[in-house]
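User: Okay, second chain of the day. Same drill as before: sequence in, structure tokens out.
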Amino acid sequence: MAGVLIFSSPPLLRPVFRRTVPNTRVSVRASSQFSETPVPSSSVSTKEDPKPVFNPPPNFKPPEPKRFSVRPDKTLDILGASLSLIFRLGTGVFVSGYSASFVSKSEIPPDEYALEFAGFKVKETSKLGPRPEKPIEIYEFESVREIVAVLDLDVLFYPCPRNGPNFRPKVAQMGGKQQFPYMMVKGGDGTVPFMLSLGLLTTLTEGFAMIGRMGKGSSYTPSKLPPKPLELWAYEGSPFCKVVREVLVELELPHILHNCARGSPKRQLLYQKAGHFQVPYLDDPNTGVKMFESAEIVEYLKATYVLQ
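Assistant: Same drill. Structure tokens below.
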């Protein structure tokens, strides 16, 4: 059984921080299952087009993860994406009910993820409410995704950039028109994070947070639509994750976002899966590529999916 939630955005300040998209609406669909078959575009053809082939770029080799390093040619991108940390006071960096304490190294087994600092390990806990077994489905373009990070939700995103041919028509079918405003969903134990409960101030700080990346992640770049959604391990507060999400949206690539903010149990899952914790981490089931490093992920996505 699936439910559809439709959110209308407040008209105040809409022309200030973003371009107005006429006759639009946001749709958030919570579902017990999701389809790996892409939603067809609004155009109908009686002739079946040849299926695109998805392969990694020639001589491609996933890079070795490098913690907290910025490739010199991407410094400005990361600085611009970091503005949200300042204006939003780190909202989306921690899950709901996060707490941390320093313990001795022997208290946490070596096969468990833990941050080390000054000869100690950081023991992180959280108080998360119930979460759905399957990812919820959201149709939107790149915007603030703080609440799903705070609630530690997995989300299947269907990106809807401006002029995107695949999923905008689907939103029109479900809601009667298309509109993609900022959206806030109250969930978990019913507690709304402080920075999401300030009304006009929330809207203002979110607008300021987008200044450094103005226009990124909003317009469609012609691309090949894969048969399966990509999987991205990331969280809202990371500027390295943000630059990758922007490209996923611009290429209109469906992707499952595994949120793993500080305090999320999914940090341990990624640690076990990849032998290392670092985000962003991309797992592309269409090509078999699994990789770290934001700059290289962006280059891989463009080389693999942009229509030449």
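The chain is about 25% helix and 15% strand.

User: Thanks, on to the next one.
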